[in-house]
Design goal:
The complex is a heterodimer of chains A (368) and B (228). Chain A has 368 residues and is an all-alpha fold. Chain A is 73% helix and 0% strand. Chain A is built from 13 helices and no strands. Chain B has 228 residues and is mainly α. Helices cover 58% and strands 2% of the residues of chain B. Chain B contains seven helices and two strands, in the order H-H-H-H-H-H-H-E-E. Chain B is globular, with a radius of gyration of 22 Å. The chains are: A mainly alpha (368), B mainly alpha (228). At the A-B interface, helix 5, helix 6 and helix 11 of A face helix 7 of B.
Chain lengths: 368, 228
């Protein structure tokens, strides 16, 4: 992989939250915490910030190594292969689920008579072509795309601001303090981009930038998530539950500029399509990177055809949208286990091992 | 943006040059995307068109027997033929070909209900915009990529157009000429260079472009405006 500048790396992580917010993330957050979601977002964002600070401290001792190298150091080749396989399966299922969600929406809104596989093919083509070029170029393109999408989001928030009713934020604590701060802790899965931070260090041009990249990217993501949640909460009631259509799309439906432009939602869909293609391409790059690392194959890029097929398979895994919702909940909890459980435990244990090895070394020197 | 710069830009006042650059960027977008966007909007995203305009488009297309894709391809190919013929014939006849081709053929096509009047506007705007691109090779790229966008727009509306833009952007970011990338996305890139999206005042054009990694990065001293 070519080395990334810190800005390019930051936008890789920010793009992930954008993709999730465009789809059903706000609705899922509202389901758990109701009107207390803005408060909950501040709460989980603070925890996420502390968490990334903690993992940046843990990763600092392993110069430019990612979680797979650290696995190799801790438990040998088999642990590395096992974690790599978990990462690949998780990333495929997560991105496949997200793709299914988005294509279902596109089908309902614009292509009611077209089979879903036809829509999926467009994303597969984007993933294949973008992964046949250098990763740095993809990161650069992603940076430009993410900036445009962020600006478009701000335009949406500003455009719908006349219809805001701030009193919808009450009651401030939503379903209660326990639901907000205890049950609401699960909303930390909103920061699913953290998983890429574990694989990021070798791709950075300057290894000292890792801490800065991780903190800035999570801060950006948190601000963006907070703004989205507040805009949605001020516009809609939290009890709104339309199974198929995302709240963000509904928000764009309320954007109108005078009598002439009364339905601008398709323009935002265009930006989101590009953003989602970029998201899928980045995830695919990391899948290929992980696969290459655990199998030691010479040219990982060639596997893009196989993994793109698997991505389509993962998105078609569920026959109906209701099945998909249950499946998405499993993926959500799997993320909590993989990112906050397994990966962090491995990092902590590897740090202990390193400390022990250092102690032994210093004892040997003292004996001599 | 280097492809959209014209040699006279540096000799004009920087405000005028920047305005012209904006016009050229707009021309580039129009020439590349307008027919594709038109076909996407009319086939898939009709809600974008204000109601009155939508009625006007529908009524203008009532008599046309072809689908929009055939209509637009007929007009685009005709335009390319007229352009090529205008270049090949002796110079005194050239303008005549343009007038006969563009005005008479266009008018006749509309009268014969082969194409709709709104499409003539779209194709004419696209064609005029393509002439505003200073770099001849870039103009060619735009011309043949335009056909790609027309087909993508026909195939899946904004989804297809999005695919085209994404792939084009990735490939542009991947392009290098003598080791210098076509697109520099770093916010720190070449603050004082003259090779930026917007041209700075002449006393601020002190550095050579950073991506060239030249031996002498400064093109003029930073005291070139002593009197300020």
């Amino acid at each position: 992989m070519s080395k990334l500048e810190k800005y390019e790396a930051v936008f890789l992580i920010v793009n992930i939250i954008i993709a999730h917010v465009i789809l059903n993330l706000p609705k899922d957050l509202f389901t758990v915490t109701g009107t207390a979601t803005p408060l909950n977002v501040i709460y989980v964002s603070t925890i996420a910030l502390f968490f990334v600070y903690f993992i940046s401290k843990l990763l600092k001792k392993f110069n430019n190594s990612d979680i797979l190298d650290i696995c190799n150091y801790l438990g040998g080749k088999w642990l590395k292969v096992a974690l790599g396989a978990i990462y690949i399966i998780y990333l495929l299922l997560l991105s496949g689920g997200l793709l299914r969600n988005f294509t279902e929406e596109l089908k309902i809104i614009y292509f009611p008579s077209i089979p879903i596989t036809y829509i999926l093919l467009f994303f597969a083509v984007a993933v294949i072509i973008s992964n046949s070029i250098d990763f740095k170029s993809l990161a650069k393109a992603n940076m430009l795309i993410t900036i445009v999408v962020l600006i478009s989001m701000i335009v949406i928030f500003v455009s719908v601001s006349p219809s805001y009713s701030p009193e919808k934020i009450y009651p401030l604590l939503g379903y209660g303090a326990k639901a907000t701060f205890v049950n609401g802790l699960e909303n930390i899965y909103a920061f699913s981009g953290i998983i890429l931070l574990f694989l990021l260090p070798p791709s950075l041009k300057n290894k000292d930038d890792f801490k800065k990249v991780s903190i800035v990217s999570i801060t950006f993501s948190a601000i963006y998530l907070f703004l989205s949640i507040v805009s949605l909460l001020f516009t809609f009631s939290t009890v709104i539950n339309l199974d198929y259509i995302s709240l963000m799309y509904l928000l764009t439906r309320s954007v109108e500029y005078g009598r002439f432009f009364q339905r601008a939602d398709a323009i935002f869909i265009l930006f989101w399509v590009i953003s989602l293609m970029s998201y899928l391409s980045i995830i695919m790059s990391y899948i290929l990177y992980t696969f290459k690392k655990i199998t030691n194959i010479k040219n990982g890029k060639i596997m893009v055809y196989a993994f793109a097929t698997l991505l389509i398979w993962a998105s078609l895994l569920n026959k109906s949208y209701s099945q998909f919702k249950d499946f998405y909940h499993i993926v959500k909890y799997a993320q909590l286990v993989i990112v906050f459980g397994i990966s962090t435990t491995i990092l902590i244990l590897a740090n202990f091992k390193k400390k022990k090895a250092k102690l032994k070394e210093s004892e040997k020197i003292n004996e001599n | 943006v280097d492809f959209l710069s014209s040699p006279e830009d540096v000799n004009l006042k920087y405000k005028f040059s920047n305005m012209l650059r904006f016009v050229r960027i707009l021309a580039l977008t129009v020439t590349l995307l307008l027919p594709g966007l038109y076909i996407s909007i009319t086939n898939y995203h009709q809600e974008l068109i204000p109601t009155e305009l939508l009625f006007a488009i529908i009524s203008s297309r009532l008599e046309v027997p072809f689908p929009v894709i055939i209509e637009i391809l007929i007009m685009e190919v005709s335009f390319e033929l007229i352009r090529e013929a205008g270049l090949r014939v002796p110079s005194p006849v050239g303008p005549t070909i343009g007038i006969v081709g563009a005005l008479i053929l266009g008018e006749a096509a509309v009268s014969a209900n082969i194409v709709s009047p709104i499409l003539i506007i779209i194709v004419a705007l696209t064609g005029i915009s393509s002439f505003a691109i200073p770099d001849y090779s870039l103009g060619f790229y735009m011309r043949y990529h335009r056909f790609g966008y027309i087909l993508l727009g026909y195939a899946a509306g904004f989804l297809g157009i999005g695919l085209g833009i994404f792939i084009n952007l990735c490939l542009l970011c991947n392009l290098k000429s003598f080791g210098a990338p076509y697109i520099t996305a770093s916010p720190k890139a070449d603050r004082k260079s003259m090779h930026k999206t917007l041209l700075s005042p002449i006393w601020k054009r002190e550095n050579r472009p950073g991506f060239l990694h030249t031996d002498r990065p400064q093109s003029q001293n930073n005291i070139s405006m002593k009197w300020k």
